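Action item from last meeting closed. Structure (267 res):
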């Protein structure tokens, strides 16, 4: 089919429609999760989600228009415009959180990839194919997103029961077992400490300190930089003798490339 201005415009319009549909699904899912968690200031948080969604869609629409016009100029034999792209910033919090998820898998498995689910009453050895990690409380809660206690190995069945649209009774049972196992795995009152930290994040008395690893610290660049180095070292050490799956990313390469320039999202 021969390219025309109309066909190019139609192609980019369809592409934008697919982006719009995806963003609307994401927005709906986030709102449902907020409602089910009974978050404080619900209306304010939903307005914040709407503002971010609208801003993202405006940016995507502008990108689609630029690509469309450049493609039309190329068809007409005219020079294409070069647009300045905003430099991507390195979010060290997201980097560490994703690295900790892989470390949690390695920490809770043996040399053959077998492991125990933290949400099962019976001590059952699971195969590698059932392995997932789970945050007891959402990773969006910044003051506990980098806490060791909040990330543990869990089987797919238990993980599925804690989804927003899962069975509420089964979800409460799974969470209760998880909390009990946390106290056994680490120390007494670990689950209660996590809950109190989570609750403090949504109150006016929030003191801006995060549970980084197992220490309550202010999330300064120096503290996050040191913790990222510690997690990279732990990742290398925990891979020794374990060959049951490949690393999800080359963490050291990403860190060496971006460690001199990163941002910290404190809230």
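Sequence:
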């Amino acid at each position: 089919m021969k390219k025309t201005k109309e066909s190019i415009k139609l192609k980019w319009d369809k592409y934008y429609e697919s982006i719009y549909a995806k963003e609307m699904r994401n927005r709906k899912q986030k709102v449902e999760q907020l409602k089910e968690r009974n978050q404080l200031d619900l209306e304010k948080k939903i307005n914040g989600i709407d503002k971010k969604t609208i801003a993202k869609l405006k940016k995507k629409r502008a990108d689609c228009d630029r690509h469309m016009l450049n493609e039309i100029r190329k068809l007409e034999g005219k020079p294409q415009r070069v647009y300045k792209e905003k430099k991507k910033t390195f979010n060290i919090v997201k980097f560490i959180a994703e690295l900790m998820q892989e470390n949690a898998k390695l920490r809770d498995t043996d040399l053959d990839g077998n492991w125990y689910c933290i949400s099962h009453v019976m001590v059952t050895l699971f195969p590698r194919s059932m392995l997932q990690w789970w945050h007891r409380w959402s990773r969006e809660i910044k003051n506990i997103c980098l806490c060791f206690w909040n990330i543990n190995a869990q089987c797919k069945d238990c993980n599925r029961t804690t989804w927003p649209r899962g069975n509420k009774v089964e979800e409460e049972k799974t969470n209760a077992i998880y909390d009990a196992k946390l106290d056994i795995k680490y120390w007494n009152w670990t689950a209660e400490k996590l809950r109190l930290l989570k609750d403090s994040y949504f109150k006016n008395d929030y003191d801006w300190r995060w549970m980084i690893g197992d220490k309550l610290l202010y999330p300064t660049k120096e503290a996050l930089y040191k913790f990222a180095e510690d997690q990279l070292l732990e990742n290398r050490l925990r891979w020794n003798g374990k060959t049951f799956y490949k690393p999800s990313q080359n963490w050291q390469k990403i860190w060496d490339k971006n460690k001199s320039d990163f941002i910290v999202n404190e809230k």
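Note appended to the action item: The chain has eight helices and eight strands.
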